[in-house]
Amino acid sequence: MADVLSGVASPSDVRALPEAALPGLCEALREAIITTCGRVGGHLGASLGAVELVVALHRVFHTPQDALLFDVGHQAYAHKLLTGRRDRMHTLRQAGGIAPFLDPRESHHDALAAGHACTAISAALGLLAGRRQLGHPGHVVAVVGDGALTGGLSFEGLNNAGGSPLPLVVVLNDNQMSISANVGAIPALLRTRNARAFFESLGFTYLGPVDGHDLGALTRALREAKASSRPVVVHALTKKGRGFPPAEADEQTRGHAMGPYEWRDGKLVRSRGGRPTFSEAFAQVLGEALERDPRVVAVTPAMLEGSALTGLKARFPDRVHDVGIAEQHAVTFCAGLAAAGAKPVCVIYSTFLQRAYDQVVHDVCLPGLPVVFAVDRAGLVGADGATHQGAYDVSFLRPLPGLTQWAPMVGEDLAPMLATALQASGPSVLRFPRGTLPDLPPELAHAEPEVTGPSAPAVTAAHGQPAPDARSVTSGRPLSAAVPGGASTSAPGQPAPDALAVSGARWLKRVPGARLTLVTLGPLGLSALEAARNEPDWSVLDARRAWPLDEAALLEAAAGGHVVVAEEGTVRGGLGSAVLELYAAAGIAPRVKLLGMPDVFLPHGDARVQRTQLGLDAAGLRHAGHALLGEERR
Amino acid sequence: MADVLSGVASPSDVRALPEAALPGLCEALREAIITTCGRVGGHLGASLGAVELVVALHRVFHTPQDALLFDVGHQAYAHKLLTGRRDRMHTLRQAGGIAPFLDPRESHHDALAAGHACTAISAALGLLAGRRQLGHPGHVVAVVGDGALTGGLSFEGLNNAGGSPLPLVVVLNDNQMSISANVGAIPALLRTRNARAFFESLGFTYLGPVDGHDLGALTRALREAKASSRPVVVHALTKKGRGFPPAEADEQTRGHAMGPYEWRDGKLVRSRGGRPTFSEAFAQVLGEALERDPRVVAVTPAMLEGSALTGLKARFPDRVHDVGIAEQHAVTFCAGLAAAGAKPVCVIYSTFLQRAYDQVVHDVCLPGLPVVFAVDRAGLVGADGATHQGAYDVSFLRPLPGLTQWAPMVGEDLAPMLATALQASGPSVLRFPRGTLPDLPPELAHAEPEVTGPSAPAVTAAHGQPAPDARSVTSGRPLSAAVPGGASTSAPGQPAPDALAVSGARWLKRVPGARLTLVTLGPLGLSALEAARNEPDWSVLDARRAWPLDEAALLEAAAGGHVVVAEEGTVRGGLGSAVLELYAAAGIAPRVKLLGMPDVFLPHGDARVQRTQLGLDAAGLRHAGHALLGEERR
Q1: Spatial distance between the Cα atoms of B588 and B598, rounded to a whole number of angstroms
Q2: What ipTM describes this predicted complex?
Q3: Which of B334, B395, B599 sits opposite A573 (nearest CB)?
Q4: What is the pTM of this model?
Q5: Domain edge (last residue) among A380, A412, A431
Q6: For residue B410, what is the domain's CATH number?
């Protein structure tokens, strides 16, 4: 098997193979994908389903003269293996290694970079229009999953392409799944003769459906498409996870994104992290809110799996809405729900909330509707890489009037913050990171109500400007009362207790006469506490709200003349920038150092390593504090 | 005529009228719409086309128990007239007057606020789902123009609604227009039997097409839709501008948005502003770029009219692409064009660029493609009001790596800035405001190359960090060399001369040893120059680039210890915030005052009046400077 593959260094080698060798090539590709993903994890299911399709595409089209654009790119591991990247596939999704998606900087056989769904048709049409205008020859093919058809951008592209004379080729890789099952009217449409009617009504020639695992049928259809002088769609039916029984047997996602696994005694063993993730902890408190208040509704654009909501969907099938890959609709749908008096919680990754920015501005914030945005994957995302970094949410949301932004430091913050957001009369955000829950330091779990100085860090509420409708915090209540997975703080059917509400910032360490304060957002507070452990004149303030600021607490933080603000997000316009605006308005001028994500698109890698490299761990915060103090002594 | 209307104070009065009175009611509504728009301007065409539809909707559905959501809302003047706002219609779009679009805060017959297209289906589905969940009765109707069907959000809503059991009623108000003619495959689809196939394939019951000016047919179709137990679409064919000959005769837009007009001697006389607008001036320099370089392409999502591009579309039909109401596609299409080696210029309003935020992040900035965004309507938008304010672009774009943001102060800046952006290897923004070009003060038009102090303001380039690929500025070159409408600086077919390139900030007034510097973005530089005219120790710096900053110039600006930063955009995360970040990083602490748009959604009104109220005129800037200096003396 491997022999076939080792003889293929580029697509021209694929085209040189005799037809009889192709089934063996496909088998070798599947073996390589399964082995790679078993070793390092990855987007297994979609790539296994597209093996024959990728081979057929390279038999018919000649990259890079012809351009293949794979939507998202997670179905294109076979394409990576056939385009000179086989020897490095074991570095997939790791720092310095093969990218999780496609990127022209990695191979000139990748026409365009992507990682978000639904971009391929529009980008391909632009590429084709540009090439024609400049007199460059070549065909342009957009390979699009059926999941991406629910996304509005795909439709905008289809409408423009179908009304254009350019011979764009769209290949529909229809595996009946988004990440989990596809939703809305599209799935039924694609299973019937309506598929032809739909695409023909949009101006496309329709070819298919063809068996996406039949190389002969695929090749014939693609050749016909290549010969077309007008827009054409090839509808290929594929099976996600094809050829790997554990993926085929996984009814939820068909092995969409699997972590590393191995075979032991003939059985598949998947390694699993021990601690729950922030997503899982949030899903739990959301479940409690759904139980407690019949007005609560959850909405997510195809992130049921990623945000650990499948259990809730099973428990509350009518109140947990997966609207498919349709971020804009998810947010405007929530606006409608809120206008009706429901309490929608929109669960969405930071990077995908970018897709719905205008809907947040225009449909939610402008009318001031009480939609709660649970912004998952906020900050560094590790192996998912540059396309998925949650770097911008605080900055693009902060200017929006009336929107309150919360950030939990530990899992124990989730329940009170969600309760506070659900009580608010306007919109709120809860941003939490990808990854497992941090340990709660013992001194925080058993915090005393009073400020006692550096030797006994205390959790107390700073008395700042309260958030709209937020009730006052119960200072010093042990955080462990709301531990996810521990005892629930309220019985089903009961309203959220007042004690759950939070307001402003929280002093993690409050030293009278401190020279320097570390101000943080989210779990960075724990690193700051560690950084300040042996610094008797440093205070630590967990901002808790990125916006609006707890002004009183932040003015107190400036009293010693030195403030380090650290956040896992861009430093441009984020919390640090907000703090600078506050100090300028107050006419005070402490020395301020901003730490955060830099002005580059951070690539894939280990988030913990990246955090260290960016100076966002305890050592980095300590160093920043000393540097700020040291500069003054110069 | 007017008598019929004066007897109608609410929708129940409409339902109480005998059928025979309805044609007279429609005629009276048209008369009121024509009179109102003649007096104060407004969205004439769409509202005239929807008169019978609005009357029929109120005959069949009972607001507010039933909810009517008009997409955009600009077709709903008849609805305003029938819901108790007739006596105030003469205040339309003016400060404190009737809103340009719909808003529940204005009438409980308006179900949801909107002003951007394509939101109605998603919002209506959410409203219906929320009402059902909470046990509230009532029908929900989304009235959507055919122009909005090209927008992805509408499709996302249709897909979700068509796959849902909820009996959402969608009324398609099909006038064959977006703002100008509708584009892509949708127009042909709606003119054929494909319309039925399209909506049925998406899971809707299809009723129609019906004559949208036949009250009987409309009423019957709406009653049938009301009785449906599943999603249903009513396809009504209407004529934009119906009943007003000058609008019907306007082939471009059918009187979409007309300024005030009056009848004189039987002829329609429209008042027109004398000076060209920023949009017109930009269209002219874009035309010169199209002539000069065959790689240049213009793309706009349905803003041909608003951004004055119809002339260019006629001159360069294959290189000026109107992609319809499809902002996301417009940007990703540009990414494809740039990847092919073309030089796309995406002309889009600031408020609509919000719709394509992720496409700017993921499709353009991440791969670093040289797309130029001409961001029109940046800043205050006057009569268009809260939904359309161009408040956020600098803030949401500033964190994006590699994106350079330019802002012209005067029309003369447009040509060199566009030339610089087209020469860049990465993406650029040019943001310019709604409104007419300012006068160029004589001292700037005849500027000398040397800095001569306060008595002779000079235009010189600050020597800051150059923008990527920007060539150096020709200091002191008279600005009038590039006056739009004057002599072109280059003959057709010739490359842009080097002299056209700009780099960093520009000193409008540079006083050695200045105590205070006014730093501005865009036309505010002229107000700052006026504010500083009698202040011998104030300098004025036109930042020109909102990002990246011209660091050397801005550090020099801080030398006197007092800096006022003024921008027409939110103060949260904008230019002022960037300046604060720079000073913090440099370890300097001048007193800084930020001026800009406040933390509220600014309503409709006269932009010049609002500018004064916000302190963004010369008097406001002068006051801010004195206050900043005065605080120090306290």
Answers
A1: 26
A2: 0.92
A3: B395
A4: 0.92
A5: A431
A6: 3.40.50.970
